[in-house]
Design a protein that fits this description.
single chain; 390 residues; alpha+beta; D-Maltodextrin-Binding Protein, domain 2; 3 domains; 6-stranded antiparallel barrel; 6 helices
Length: 390
């Protein structure tokens, strides 16, 4: 009796453990669902030159790299004639970067270098000092350093071997921050969380999780994507610690049911909340294959046309050849029509995503066939979810 009781208790505890674990498997941290308002990246861009190329730079017909070189040399105290400058080893490039929040002067950030001329490759080149500007026209960083393209391009004439794109590269930690973005975080009376994907249910759950942690009604959802949190006076002196605790709270997000198609790649993605009503599906492909053959009938050996006499006709491969050395060309077409025989399946009301995929796999649909099937189900009003085509 005791053994049966002990066994039953263990089964119940195991069930509770699995239930508890299942509830936490899909829990997502708030930091992965939202960002703090004001803590954002800023885009930077600049125009520069990559030097040291092995004859793969911009050609002489590209004018702006030559002007840039002349202007740079003038600033360095060297005066040259425009016509004396050759640019085979130099390429004009744009330099882009993202300035992260809280970046301070002296911090290093990565930059992306992209050719804007007709350079064949910037492999092995060095980016010369390039100021990086934000949308306000002010310089926030300066970039310089060797360019890494993560590939290669070589060849001559008709032969060529290439890996990745040799006209785009990176300079890891190649820019030094010169100016910070003004943003005050200390002694704030409130902060705002902006959800990456606006949803009323998710906003409500985030608000509840924050209020449960703070022990008071400090958080309030302003709309489906915005949660405002009033910071208690006792916590304002330790705002970093509070934000660390809040962004690590677990929340189960909720999203609308969606089916997303990408026609270019043949990708189909369906959310877990997609449901269908009872519907019968049959899908078969109709293949029409047209093959064209060209038959060429050569004249008989040593055949010579005779004046005033056609001579006897010779039949070869179904084609009549008259003597006289003529070649006859005929075209034949074979048309084959094949329709696949697929079974009719019934998808029951409320079928989940797993049941839907399993049923459609039974009739052997491909990803592209699946697009057509799901669109037909949606047109019949049996697919309960948003259909999106990328």
């Amino acid at each position: 009796m005791k053994e049966k009781y002990f066994h039953g208790l263990m089964v119940m505890m195991a069930g509770l453990f699995l239930l508890f674990s299942a509830g936490n498997v899909f829990a997502i941290r708030i930091k992965d669902l939202a960002e703090i308002e004001g803590m954002r990246e800023n885009q930077l861009m600049g125009y520069g030159l990559v030097a040291g190329l092995n004859g793969t730079g911009d050609k002489d017909q590209t004018d702006f790299p030559v002007r840039s070189i002349v202007n740079m040399l003038v600033r360095l105290g060297v005066r040259v004639n425009r016509k004396d400058v050759k640019v085979k080893n130099v390429a004009a490039v744009t330099v882009t970067a993202s300035l992260p929040p809280f970046a301070k002067p002296g911090n290093h950030i990565d930059v992306v270098v992209s050719s804007i001329g007709d350079a064949k490759s910037i492999q092995g080149g060095t980016l010369l000092q390039t100021p990086l500007l934000a949308a306000d026209g002010r310089v926030y960083a300066v970039a310089q350093g060797p360019v890494s393209i993560g590939g290669f391009s070589s060849g001559k004439g008709g032969g060529k071997s290439q890996k990745n794109f040799p006209t785009v590269g990176r300079v890891p930690s190649g820019a030094i921050v010169e100016r910070p973005v003004p943003f005050s975080f200390q002694n704030r009376s409130y902060v705002v969380f902006n959800l990456y994907m606006a949803d009323f249910t998710t906003a409500k759950r985030v608000t509840s999780a924050i209020n449960d942690y703070l022990g008071q009604q400090s958080a309030r959802a302003m709309d489906a994507g915005t949660i405002r949190i009033n910071i208690p006076k006792s916590r304002r002196a330790h705002l970093v610690t509070l934000m660390s605790a809040l962004e690590n709270l677990d929340v189960h997000p909720d999203n609308a049911a969606r089916v997303v198609f990408n026609e270019r790649t043949g990708t189909v993605v369906m959310g877990e909340d997609v449901r269908i009503s009872t519907v019968a599906v049959a899908h078969g492909n109709l293949n029409v294959v047209i093959k064209e053959h060209t038959n060429v009938s050569q004249p008989l050996p040593f055949s010579t046309p005779r004046k005033g006499s056609a001579g006897p006709a010779v039949k070869t491969g179904g084609t009549v050849i008259a003597p006289g050395g003529q070649t006859v060309v005929t075209k034949e077409q074979d048309i084959t029509v094949k329709e696949e025989k697929k079974k009719l399946i019934v998808l029951k009301e409320g079928a989940s995503i797993g049941e839907l995929v399993e049923s459609l796999n039974k009739i052997g649909v491909t990803p592209r066939d699946l697009m057509a099937v799901l669109q037909a189900i949606h047109a019949a009003g049996a697919l309960h979810g948003k259909l999106e085509i990328m």
